[in-house]
Amino acid sequence: MKQPPGPAGRVATEGVTDIFALTINTVPGFDILRVVGEVLGTTARKQNPFIEGIKREADGPALRKWREDAIARMVALAYDRGANAVVGVRFDHREIGPDWTEICAYGTAVFIVPATQAPIAHDLLIDDQALAE
Questions:
Q1: Quick one: pLDDT at residue 42?
Q2: How far apart are the C-alpha atoms of 122 and 82, rounded to whole Å?
Q3: Pairing relationship of beta strands 85-96 and 16-21 according to DSSP bridges
Q4: Domain that holds residue 77
Q5: Quick check: 42 and 106 in contact, CB under 8 A?
């Protein structure tokens, strides 16, 4: 059960099925079954955005792409660790020397199940952990 139903807040990245990436700390209608841990996605770009094809400062698509790149890396890491959602997503940036800026997306990777399935999924998780030992 990697993929929760529902369209809101979902992100699709290359090689990863849809995954929730939300700025809130819960997913309405879902229960957090397991906290996987902190995930971080970063990308670095030249501070001169015109290098990447921006014609004027009001060109949002290129600037938005940098942020989406950081989100995609964060989501891919969460998926690789067995999560199907990232909650508490935040953004940050910092200058790296005189020419570069790092854009960072971070949050908490979690495994969620629809609220009505939480007791059943919890029992299955406990059984799987016992078998692994």
A1: 92
A2: 15
A3: parallel
A4: 14-132
A5: no
